[in-house]
Amino acid sequence: MKLLHSLALFALLSSAMPAAILAQDDRAPLPRPERPAEPGDAPETEGAAPELHDAEGEAPGDDAAPAPDPAPITRDLAGPFLAARASAFNNDFSASAQYFQRALRQDPTNLYLLDSALVAMIAAGDVEAAIKLSGAGGPAALPTPPTELLARASLAQREDWAGLVDLLDATRPAEDADIDGTQLLDGLIRVWALLGAGSASESAAALEQLDQIGPARELIAYHKGMTRAMVGDFEGALEVMPPDQPLPHLQGLLAQAQILALLERRDEAIALLEAQEITETEPALAGLLERLNAGEEIAFDVVRDARDGIAQVFLTFASILNIDAGSSALSLVHARLAAYVSPDLTDARLIVAQLLQDMGQFDAAETEFTALRAEGKMRPMAELARIDALSRAERKPEAEAAALALTEAYPDIPEGWIALGDIRRQQDSFAEAVPAYDRAIELIEDGTDAQWFPIYARGIAQERAGRFDLAEGDLRRALELRPEEPHVLNYLGYSYVDRNENLDEALDLIERAVELAPDDGYILDSLAWVYYRLGRYEEAVEPMEASVQVMPSDPLVNDHLGDIYWMVGRKREASVQWQRALSLEPETEEDAYRIRMKLERGLDAVKALEAEHGGTLPPPPPAPEDEDEDAPQ
Questions:
Q1: Alpha-carbon distance 537 to 563, whole Å?
Q2: What are the Cα distances from residue 441, in Å, to 146, 269, 445, 451, 466?
Q3: Helix (H, G, I), strand (E, B) or coil at 236
Q4: Are 563 and 603 in contact (CB under 8 A)?
């Protein structure tokens, strides 16, 4: 049974975008006022998906995923099949599952439709309905990859250990056969099933056999440690999970620290947790550290029983598959099964939420995140990733609400306040962003490198709010902390250029920025514009042309290039650049009006007009009022 490979054939699901898990906004603020998001920049996700139905048309139980309006009814096979494929391509698993089931009712013996429906139902979170449809474990069940996966999950969830061992033994390879990924999955499930059935020695022997797989030894060692710890062999667990080699994931670190505490090595457990950067932002680790310091009794609860162990097997494979961007749907299937087998396994539900979010299914992801928050299982780093993803999808109000919830739940984590400030700044709420950055700066040790970003971001917010005296202080302070940060150098330099002051210092700042980031379009624009302000028009041409090459769709750099061309006598080319800038929709109507005036009268006339009116163009004449439609013709 080539389970993983076969599932890839049956899934019919598109690959998702890679996850972007950031603790703060990693996009460098522009060296000039940021532009508000334009409608349509990022696709809005549809509402929650349609309700699932099993093969007989019955609705699932109350615990099924929420569903919106049902999909339109189509009577032939081609309609629902194509709709199912289209929904799957868009990662709308609930709609895909419904359509595949409609197609299956018209062709009940089609295994392709059956498997596709099952995969979509699992991905949508309706595992119970998928088990019912597949007949998993029953005499009528067909030996297809999805039904076999569902049979394993169903038996584990019901704790039918004897039945699960029998099922696995029936498909078990010969002892001397090479073990592939599918057999590794089954082998680990069998280890835990044997332990659940009370056959500890057989379970240990099965693990030893799996240990022959070279590339999987770390994975095998982890499950070996978990099985030993679950039966109270803590010394044996540490042999395969030594504390001087901290495991790179939350469950592993929790297990190592709990085992050390149970072996009366509490100081080592405390030292292990204190050495991890993630402890502060992971409530489970921080809570364990607090209990250890308080001398409280510690229990081993990372894996409580064989069900938890099998859920961790599915979770392990979900994590491995998630590394490959083309396997996101398979990762979601395994994470859903992990959550089904052990609903209390927070990491499984968290991976489900993150995968849905990465696939653009924000409403479905929000259902999972909301459930985790309601149960007090919010994970700050995961919330930061969610906030970032919502922001990138132009769902700013939702991102701000999530950031507010995070700062309320975890007020002492500076990253939460930075995220809130970033979201408000991205919505042009510059004055409101400042207090968020203030709080973040207070929470970070004064004078440390970690302060540079919130100080820099606060400086941007102050500048955009019209408080340049405060902004200048922040930008200079950020430069003290990060003297070689090109975006800070550029922002301060361009601010001076934009204000037409301190131009010599601005040139020095921007030239240093160019040395550090020679291909950055915004920084090249700044260099050209400071040359322009200094009257060095010929020198401005090359960097501005380079900036336009990097950012050909930016209206401002095209406008700037037009001005520079005009000043070096290339007036026809100037008009071309202004026309292009106008077609790219400048940020404000005032910018567009100025470009139109340059096209009509030329830059010299526009500058003269601005000089007559205190540095700005007089407002355009009011548009003629429309004639009264009811007036007599």
A1: 10
A2: 51, 31, 8, 6, 21
A3: helix
A4: yes
* Angstrom distances, CA of residue 409 to CA of 172, 203, 379, 437: 48, 42, 10, 17
Burial class (CB in 10 A: 0-12, 13-18, 19+), 34: middle
> How far is it, in rounded angstroms, from Cα 627 to Cα 477?
58
Q: Which two tokens stand for residue 41?
A: 């920049």
Q: Which tokens is 350 given?
A: 């968290």
176 close to 323: Cβ distance less than 8 angstroms: no
The C-alpha atoms of residue 153 and residue 163 are separated, in whole angstroms, by: 12
Q: In Å, how far are 104, 110, 317, 418 from 76, measured between CA atoms?
A: 11, 15, 38, 53
User: Where do the H-state alpha helices sit in 375-467?
Assistant: 380-392, 396-409, 414-426, 430-443, 452-464
CA torsion 628→630→631→633, rounded to 10°?
110
Burial label for 122, CB within 10 Å (0-12, 13-18, 19+), is buried
Q: What is the pLDDT of residues 414-460, one digit of tens each?
A: 999 999 999 999 999 999 999 999 999 999 999 899 999 999 999 99
Which region, left, alpha or beta, applies to residue 69 given φ > 0 means left and ψ of -120 to 50 means alpha? Answer: beta
Tell me the pLDDT tens digit for each residue of 232-246. Answer: 999 999 999 998 899
DSSP 457-491: HHHHHHHHTT-HHHHHHHHHHHHHH-TT-HHHHHH
- Compute the distance between CA of residue 561 and CA of residue 26 in angstroms, rounded to an integer: 28
What percent helix, strand, coil does the chain show, rounded to 5?
65, 0, 35
| Sequence letter at residue 566 | W
Q: Give the Å distances, CA to CA, from 294 to 261, 278, 509.
A: 12, 20, 52
* pLDDT tens-digit map of 43-91: 333 333 333 334 334 443 444 444 444 544 445 788 888 998 999 899 9
Q: What is the mean pLDDT of the chain?
A: 84
